[in-house]
Amino acid sequence: MPEITLRGYQCSRCKHTWVPRDEARPLVCPKCKSPYWDKPRQDEMKKKFDKIDRARLK
Ligand SMILES: [Zn+2]
Fold first, then answer.
1. How far is the centre of ligand 1, averaged over its atoms, from the C-alpha of 19 (Å)?
2. Ligand 1 centre and the CA of 11: distance in Å?
3. What is the DSSP code (8-state) at residue 27?
4. Are 23 and 57 in contact (CB under 8 A)?
5. Segments of the chain scoring below 70 in pLDDT
6. 3-state class of 10 per DSSP?
7. 3-state SS class at 9
8. How far, in Å, is the centroid of ligand 1 from the Cα of 21?
9. Cα(36) to centroid of ligand 1, in Å?
10. Could you give the 3-state DSSP secondary structure of residue 37?
11. Where are the domains of the chain?
């Protein structure tokens, strides 16, 4: 089965990407353990993830 990478998160600190195993938003980056992994400096990334979150809630 091919790997699906449409859904997932990217740490804004270390650029590590991963796919969550459940619906809960991870509190920290699994790689660098930063609690600020979802606080990108660029708003473009936030908009991208917000869009994914809305899609996941439907
Ligand atoms: Zn990280």
1. 13
2. 5
3. S
4. no
5. 1-6, 40-48, 57-58
6. strand
7. strand
8. 17
9. 8
10. coil
11. 10-17+25-57
Q: Reduced to 3 states, what is the DSSP secondary structure of residue 18?
A: strand
HSE toward the beta carbon, residue 39, CA cutoff 13 A: 5
Q: Residue 45 C-alpha to ligand 1 middle, in angstroms? A: 15
18: which 2 tokens? 């991963």
**pLDDT score, position 3:** 60
Specify the pLDDT at position 55: 76
Going from the Cα of 27 to the center of ligand 1, the distance in angstroms, rounded, reads 11
Q: What is the DSSP letter of 17?
A: E
pLDDT attached to residue 23: 75
**Three-state DSSP class for 46?**
helix
